[in-house]
Amino acid sequence: MPMSFRRAAATREEDDYAYTDKSSGRQLVFTPQPNEVVVTFHDRLSDTVLNELTQTLPLTISPGFNVGRGFAAVQTATSVDLASAVRSLRGRLDIANTLPAMVGLDGLTHYFLPDELTVQFEQGIDKEQAERIIKQHGSWVIAEQRTPGYYTIAVPERSGLFETIHEFSDLPEVALAEPSEASFAPTAR
After folding, report:
1. pLDDT bucket at 4, cuts 50 / 70 / 90
2. pLDDT score recorded for residue 88
3. How large is the average pLDDT for residues 38-55?
4. Are 104 and 179 in contact (CB under 8 A)?
5. Are residues 151 and 78 in contact, defined by beta-carbon separation less than 8 angstroms?
6. Which CATH superfamily is domain 18-27+112-181 in?
């Protein structure tokens, strides 16, 4: 299903990287990787943009990128601290948002997209109701998934990813709210 390319102008940086899995009641806690960041772009990504980014900043593409969706995971040089790398990235006009790569309690690294999440509405909530709820909370649909009631939605402007997950999880109409995780094609650039 094609994804829209409208991204939030700017998400808010957060320092609480946890949410409760509504279906299990389990608290999921994440720790930022000290040297990896997921970056989303305002426009479609290209090799030219990636090359320019890695040449002007002390970065390398870590696990990969997705040209069609406009995101990349980057690794900072060991001599550069994450906070200053994020400030440099956020100062670029072509970059929409950033979020550190996260390590879960399972020890695995997760590459969450900083400006979108997935929600599933309870059975009985139709498309019109779901889209009205999404809009009422300052968000919009990026993609309606194949499974009825599942949507990929945008993090509202000046909100944080985990803050938005909490907000949607608290709604009785929502069965699930979780980060959208990046997936990378195994092919090289």
Report:
1. very low
2. 76
3. 77
4. no
5. no
6. Peptidase S8 propeptide/proteinase inhibitor I9 (3.30.70.80)
Contacting residues for 66 by C-beta, under 8 A, at least 6 apart: 45, 72, 182, 183, 184, 185
Q: Give the angle subtended at the CA of 71 by the CAs of 46 and 155, to the nearest 5°.
A: 140
Candidates 121, 117, 132; CA nearest to 171 is: 121
Query: What pLDDT is attached to residue 151?
Result: 97
Q: pTM for this structure?
A: 0.86
In this prediction, residue 185 has a pLDDT band, given cuts at 50, 70 and 90, of low
CATH code: domain 30-110 is 3.30.70
Distance CA(104)–CA(43), nearest Å, equals 30
Task: Return the structure tokens found at 76.
Answer: 């900072």
CA 63 to chain centre: 15
Q: Are 97 and 152 in contact (CB under 8 A)?
A: no
Q: What per-residue confidence (pLDDT) applies to 96?
A: 86
Query: Beta partners for 41?
Result: 95
Report the candidate in 74, 77, 55, 76 with the shortest Cα–Cα distance to residue 63.
Answer: 74
Q: Whose CA is closest to 113, among 131, 96, 130?
A: 96
Length of the chain: 189
99 vs 97: CA distance, rounded Å = 7
Q: What stretch(es) of the chain map to CATH 3.30.70.80?
A: 18-27+112-181
